[in-house]
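Q: Is it fine to ask for two folds in a single conversation?
A: Yes, each is treated on its own. Send the first.
Q: Here.
A: Result:
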Amino acid sequence: FGFEHVKVNSFEQLCINLANEALQSHYNKCVFEQDMAEYHAEGLDVDDVVFVDNQPTMDLLTGRLGVFNLLDNECILQHGTDATFLASMQSELRNHRSKAFVQPRLGRDSFAIRHYA
């Protein structure tokens, strides 16, 4: 998807990439899903366009108990820390349907989100 791979990703870059992905997702739904449904409804013989749906990764970031929701909850806590935020993500996102949340083998104080570039 549209996420960039750089040595250090900032929160701001994550937000920019997320906005780009939301726009791409909207475009995909409008152009591929809705248009194809209209063609089929009109009886046109067209081949379906196959595209990778990034909604599971979007849900991992923005959904209920996603990264941003957990970060928001951590900020509300008076004694929230990076460590407790990471622990809550590890607990909640380890088995997320997107399978995109990863804890690197090295560096137990970090996490990654696996995605297409």
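Q: Second one now.
A: Result:
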Amino acid sequence: MIHPFSESIPPSRRIPYHQARNATYMLQRRDEGSWDGSQTALAEYNPTIVPLTDEWDADLKNAITGGDPNVRYIQTARASNLHQCGNVVMRKQRGSGAAREHSYLVLTLLDQDL
């Protein structure tokens, strides 16, 4: 990992990095559910870091950064409780049980140190 996790996912809902390939752990977290029926654990997928250069439209850049000159990059990712990557067990569980799929857009503003 070359950058810290986004703060947009509460630690209580994050899948720990060291458990990311542990299907047993993932399914256990899935079965826990939560008050709104969603799965407890979320993971970030496909993070992308884009530099906010002078080529950006000035109004758009200002709207994104709030005018903060320290913001140099924007990170985007998808946070979800389900995935389709490689693990057949997780694919078979899609849509079963009390939990339902939730996906969120993650946006993180980063300074020059990322």
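Q: Anything structural to flag on that second result?
A: Two points. DSSP finds three helices and three strands in the chain. The helical segments are 23-32, 58-65, 88-93.
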